[in-house]
Fold these 3 entries.
Entry 1:
Amino acid sequence: MKISDPIKIGKLLLKNRFMMAAMDLGFVNNGFVTDQLIEFYKERAEGGVGCIVVGGCYTEKIGRMWKGMIGLDNDKFIPGLKKLTDIIHQNGAKTAAQLLHGGGCCHPYFIKEQPVSASAVKCLNKKIGHIPRELNLGEIKATILNFAIAARRAKESGFDAVEIIGSMGYLINQFLSPVTNKRKDRYGGDLHKRMSFLLELIEETRNKVGQDYPLIIKIAGDELIPGGNKLKEYVKIAIALENAGVDAISVSPGRHDSSVSVMSMYIPQGAYLHLTEELKKEVHLPVIAGNRLDSWQLIEQCVENGQTDIVSLGRPLIADSDLPHKILQQKYDHIRWCLSCNQGCFDSIANLKPVTCTINARAGKENKYTIKKVGKPRKIMVIGGGVAGMEAARICALRGHEVSLYEKSNKLGGQACYAASIWGRKEIRNIISFLECELHRLKLDIFLDKEVNRDLITEEAPEVIIIATGTKPTLPKIKGINNPSVMQAADILSGKSVAGENIVVIGGGSVGCEIAIHLSKQGVLPSDNALFLIQNRIIDPQTAIEKAAQGGKKITILEKKKAFGRGIGVSTKWVVLGLLEKLAINLMNEVMVEEIFFKGKDSPHNGIAISHMGKRQFIKADSVVIASGYESDDSLYREVKEFTGIDIFLIGDAAAPRNLLDAIHEGFELGYYV
């Protein structure tokens, strides 16, 4: 099997094995399809995906999780959905509607009443945390009927199939899981009884849409919560689904309240493929894998190796709508790979905003931004080769301007290079590689090791100057900060400095937390070595796990404010804070650093004097890492802003320190309008 091979889901033929996963996008108007949603999916259909799953679509208002969801609880939504499916079909893809009922995951604020669930068990998601009420038997029957009617509406709207989501901790999952199903009637008890709700739902849906209409069920494979269903239970569930006449099974591990992340860049790529691989051995229908499949090698190999039949991609297709075509045409270097940073997608949804993308400023704005050649090209000088400058240069070149890019160091990427060096964040390198490839493809003049001054600008005589000179680290005013034991986080990541065994990190924001994790991972036992030692019974598995998880450094983070992780997105912060706890990194908040002492190499008197909880303390340290922030480097802008006859713009961190999303989007927008 190959990713390019056609495959059938029931009687539905897909041209290849790429599927776009359903994602809440927020591109709707009170449940109705908008032009924004249509244009977004049009580009993904043009990009070569075999099937697009649209949704989640709420089946009844009490199951609506937020205002950004698509409506399928009323016939009034059918005309807009028909327009959407027509566009998707016209551009070469099949499409399915995902039916979703949030159950106890719904927030009373949106549904204006108490949420419902299998049982009155408090939602473990801390952002919700409410206790739902238990559905009675009559309400269960009505809920099942509403699912089936929603499926009928999807069919009438032109969808080629429906996907019913029974994972992620939503209502169906709440019935399946012993953690949330405490019922004493025929819908609760052992696994067979807990499956009753889903199996009856499938039967009723078949009554409404017919036996030949393709039906996909999404299950977890492993709920990743204590006491939840594991793989062995999901094997039984998958067999029952096949016997019930389901046409395909999609696997999406975990729940929104799981203690293990399924979508951050800290999760190894392909970590959950074993779930589809094992389920595939037990059923004879197509199995669909998703989550952390973020490289072309992994996407191709998981199909060729028989680990899955179909690959479901969500965020990667937000980042690059042409990803399927690029893989099928082996244009691997042209792919704008998702970073799994979650800044533009999941963080936006968590903050009740429409989805965007850190590295693709057009995502969700396809009907606003159409890149066309300018009528009168201009000579543009971009100064600074970080991601903001690179993106501005790329867009200017795409529009036909004559662009030159100057970078004072010997490589492109700026601060993103340091970020990509941190343990667990290497995928940030993807956007640097993409931009480098694009700049070379567009044949820009790129000058490395070239610092720009007034004379060079005068010599080059540009019509437009874009200054993206980035930031420089700030040094807090602390007595003794200039001694040899003190180093910047960037110096460690670049290899300029090497930290000792007892380390104090000053600053508990994003940089401080991430550099602490990075330092804690230095000296770990490589995973291949650990496996070798276990297989040959040289060390026991638990010791191998401990040595592979953490090095031997002792690390303390000092933060002057109360909270740690400032600047980390909401969907990733809990993962980072969890890692700090697992790695036994000492966290001290509301600390004032008074003085840093260095009495000589290996002296027991090296360390930091602090004020904490009204008391003066001394912490021993042979290395102090400064991670207390950055300031804009706008000196060149201030020097040349008085030049006459030249449009001069200041962007990215040079204007103000910002995150990756803001820097790239600012570069894009300036390049688009200049």
Note: The chain has three domains: 7-350, 379-473+648-673, 486-628.
Entry 2:
Amino acid sequence: MASAARGRGPSRVRLLFFKLIERFQPDETAIMVVMAVLVGVVGGFGAILFRLMVDFFQGFAIGHGEHTAELLAGLPWWRKLLLPVVGGLVVGPLVHLGAREARGHGVPEVINSIVFGKGVIRPAVAAVKITASAVTIGFGGSVGREGPIVQIGAALGSSLGQWLRFSPQRLRTLIGCGAAAGIAATFNAPIAGAFFALEILLRDFAVATFSPVIVAAVVATAVSRQFLGDSPAFPVPEFVLGGPQELPFFLVMGLAVGLLAVVYVRTLYASEDAFARLPLPVWLHPAAGGILLGVLLQWFPQAYGVGYGTMVEALDGRMVWWVMLLLVAVKLLAVNITLGSGFSGGIFAPALFLGGMLGGGFGAVLGMALPGIHDPVGAFAMVGMAAMVGAATGGPLTAILMLFEMTGEYRVILPLMLASIGAALVYRALMRDSIFTLKFARRGQELQYGRESAVLQSYQVQDVMEVNPLTIRADAPLQEVLKLFLGNTVEHYYVVDAKGRLQGRISIHDVKEILHEDGLGAVIIAADVCSPQDHAVHRLDNLEDCLIALGHRDSTDLPVLYGPAHPVLVGVITRQAILEVYNREVLQHRDRGMQFVTGEARMRDCVELPEQYKVQLLTPPDAWYGRTLRELELRQGYGISVLAVKRHNLRGGPVNHLPDPDRALAPGDRLIIVGEAVDLDRLLMDLNPRAFPAGDKT
């Protein structure tokens, strides 16, 4: 009884939520802004919880304090050696068994869920990521806490949307809200958090996305400030620019940072490849990396954890130039060992550390050569931090806004912009992909961002294809081919063999040259004159890939195949069908929120269909022509309803008509039908049994 009551609870909450929407009829932006407030609150508390967990594990390992190098100095050598190993023995099995998406810095996994995963992130990811990253940092892993909170916030936002059964586009927006909330709460920088989500993750600045992301960042920052105070992640010195003559030096430093960013990204992925070749179980890789990290900590305790204390020393000008430049190499090695071996943590703080040390070392050398420059170490270290983050992540705007918010100094904006853009230009000249997108490039995956791409990737070919396409048998004589073309306005037919397998495509142009040849009509068959069909798509391909294939073929439609070895023709998909999905979801979206999308029907302001239902465009078989919908009895026989009948008007364009049960179907009519997926497949199997091998129900 108790368990049943608990099971009904969430359904009642969801029902109340949808009743409120029905009662007040808010638009899409209003709905998402309300959801953004919830995600902002959850993301803010998630950042606080993560900070507390990091402090707890660090206190357990070496003691509490920001200056970890000083804390490590009082520990015996064997303890410094074993701490990362113990952390690896905890993190490795936890990630391997709990959520393998939590391995590494996690942002590529968030991007994967946005671009390829319809906005779905498993709730377990948040729990595993927050624990594994806290253990990693607390036990000496040389990583940051900003990247993990991005994945944690994104997972929380996606989980909330999944619980409410939101559409993929809404889930993607909530992922952006969660990521923005995490960055904003961690850095005390709401603008930078919002632009991180918009510039790097979503790449969508539409108002419907921009508004909730901004709200989530603001709410999370307010929550964080209430409990952690209104202070930046680490203090920065007051910036003073001596004059415009100093700006070229910031540009030169930015160019050097761009080169370092390339080394940072390349060595990180090379380290992952090296550890992947170890003859050990994957869950033991972090422990193996922990041994190397423990050895490194014996001489360079500055590589321990996030490293904010060491960065503060550089910003205050309390480090000599050669130590800062040496720490660039040390930190680079430490972060590669940590993330390459499979620990969990972020790449933001290491990027800040590397840029700050290189910038500080550059400024110190410049200060010795030109003594008139005011505070060169702190100024160049501060600007170098932002330049490094912007170059490596592919988000220079986010990095500029982040440092600007952290300093509150408008005078920093000119050198900051110059160095960041210089670093980004050098990086882009040498590498096409950022530290987040290189993982996809190495897999051969092409990332297409933005609202438009997300819409097209959310739907499969089988959702909008026309089934039962017009075909000609491969052995059909030429007279039959000509009769079909003369009796219809169809531009081309697909040629299939006796088993329904695609053989090619035949158009009137293929038979024009032999129309006047006497005696050939009874000799030539369709297979002799058809053209090969070089491009085809499959039922489970997404619409974006299909549209690209249509562009390569320069065609208005493509055949849809089913079956791995000897695919049979099961449908046809048109460019118009894809563009109507695009227009409806992107260009003609009326902010109603709950819609269902079909391949052809222009239906807005409709209720969202249950998950097991789908809408299909059906070309009736020849046997249906001359019969009425009442005679076909689709509802009685299959449980399927006809939503509309698509007919051509006098101008030749398709027009949707309400179904008349007593009007006979005519050639050229197409039906927009709706029903449970299993019933639709049952109908399609009856119409074209060759397309579905025995026993196949998918």
Note: The CA atoms of residues 235 and 312 lie 7 Å apart.
Entry 3:
Amino acid sequence: MELTAGRGLRRVGALLGSVLAVAVTLGACTPATSTGQQPASRGGTLTLLSATPIATLDPQRVADPTVAALLGRTLHRTLTAYAPSSDASQPARLVGDLATDTGTPSADLKTWRFTLRNDVRWQDGAAVTCADVKHGIARTFATDVVAGAATDALAVLAVPRTAEGKSTYAGPYAAVDAGDAGKAAFDKAVACDGSTITFTLSDAVSDFTDMLTLPTFAPVKKDGDPGPTGTLPALSDGPYQVDGTWNALTGGVLVRNPRWSPASDPIRKAHPDRIALVTGGDAGAIMETVLADGTDAQRAVALTPAPPSLQLQVAAVDALRARSLTASTGVVDYVVPNVRSAVFANPQVRVALEKSTNRAGYAAALGPTFAVRPHGSVLPEGMRALASSSAPASPSPSARASLSASASAAPSDTGAAAASPSPSASASASAVPSAAPSTSSSPLTGADPVAARAVLTAAGMTLPVPMTVAYRPSPAADKAMAALVAGWQAAGFAPTLKPIADTYFPTIAAPTATDTYDVFWSNWSPAWDSASTVLPPLFDSSFNLTTAGTGRDYGAWSNTDWNAHIRTIAALPDATTREHAWAAADATVRADGAYVALAQRYAVHVAGSEVRGLAPHPFGGGTVDLAVIGVTS
């Protein structure tokens, strides 16, 4: 099953999706004491092998989180960044990078102010200035020529849009008259005063400082700008620079940036003298090379994760296990019931679906337990929202009751006729068992078809209950979905799988999809360490459900009170309080059966025997952290 996961407010087609990386040993839950995790020393050449070409080094054109993680540790810095960590049990720690700290927000969280460090230099020796940061962000508005990366800046900065939804600011390459309203708005939204940069947002964004970790917010020096075509690498303000030319298909070499100062950088250790990036090779050949650990591979890391066929081999051999790393991609697979269908309009039937879902069987069909783990929430393990043991697993019965009457109704402005639960179903909702499973790190148990059948019978359903299930096929996906079918059948459902091989996500988001399917498979990953990049994109019906389709809210779940409530969460200034509130909001959605989480994905990387400091990137889509890695000198 391909890991085409969404990220933040957009869908990113990436090698493994994105985000929170949690270091674990193969077959265990704590980091191993291994060759790869010994302290690294300065010097030598590190070789990175990837089957996927790296088409661009331009920070405003990078979409793949694994590439963003690589560039963010070598060539391009941002105002804030996540610090490296060797403690898998702790959430990622946000720190100032180009900025002296993580910023100062206004009381209403609509204005954010940052002070730049005064000792950061470009590779040509010029100081990195506020104007450079502003120019980099301005490039994201040139959507006609600079495309592919995140567009969060367009979404949050206080720059007006046209009636068609296009920004009134067209970016730095557009020819405009003096006093152009769009440019004036951008200049006000991103303002420089010496080394201080101030952002003005259209709405309160409490985790804006986390958003700034994305490469789309990296500075670009005007006279080092790759330009509208983006054929040249931008100048580096990180510890490395491109040596010679960069080949989009085969890669290139990074050497030390002589203008980089370790004293100016709280994050990057920059241990290797050189980093050779070899891209576009055969995935199987890459793995064979690193596993063999020949002379040329002893200081190499396979950025391409080990396929399932080799993961068990790595786990079974002590020498291989000692130089391997398992990192969470942040990708969570899940299914959503269609609340507009005659079957799942009833919340009790949605509860039965959750109870009969065999997460353990699904995960086992996809790979070993260290690569795919049963999981109970769309929020991946390790996020701040799930870090607190006091975060509720499910809302109170009264909270569920308040949801039930409106959870299946589409907003009045969508133009779609939605099925509503019967009065009896709404009246008895407070007695419906919670659909919210545990989100602990321990594996979830298999399905409980007996309990699920009892729920279906109590709901007055005639067994078996027919349902059609849309999913994206592959050999592994077919086996995984078969495991789900067995559990659903035992509970009294009669599922029919409907594989959609091409244009899967557009197909299930189309207006007619809710008339055709009862259940949809999907996956998602957050863009940074906040549930704000997961729950609103997936379940806020106010922007998902339109006459054009369901957006990412494939099951058409809708609750106007919940939508309004998450607006208040987004305005909470304290991160711990905010993420705790997001956890409760997630529990509310799960309790109403809006989705059933299945499993979380992990990437297995193997390194040569002379690689040191092997660790996962905190938000790199399951890749290694180049901030701390090194080789023996």
Note: The longest strand covers residues 324-337.
